[in-house]
Design goal:
Elements lengths: L7 H18 L2 H54 L3 H8 L7
Length: 99
């Protein structure tokens, strides 16, 4: 049975040929453009995460404010009716943690 895998020397020879071919045929401007684009792509993720964090912060603040107002409304209803806030939440469809 013959050896079907290339040797290290064969792989190194192929790498050297590829490198020479690349340097000979690819202009520096094209390679620079590619590197610039790759750098821009790397910058997208942190920028996206920062924007998403700001959006989440805004809506979390709004959600917390609405939860507080809903809780205060239930307390007022409890005071007016004498029904516990626990029972009122079941009666009127209380708000949930994930709302």
């Amino acid at each position: 049975m013959s050896n079907t895998y290339p040797t290290f020397a064969d792989m190194e020879k192929q790498r050297e040929e590829n490198k020479k071919n690349f340097e000979k045929n690819v202009p520096d401007s094209l390679y620079s453009e590619y590197k610039d684009l790759r750098d821009q792509l790397k910058q997208i993720k942190p920028r996206k995460e920062a924007e998403l964090k700001a959006i989440h912060k805004k809506y979390d603040a709004e959600r917390n404010e609405l939860r507080l107002k809903a809780g205060n409304s239930v307390k007022k209803m409890s005071e007016l009716t004498g029904i516990s806030t626990w029972d009122l939440n079941f009666m009127v469809g209380g708000y949930h943690f994930n709302d």
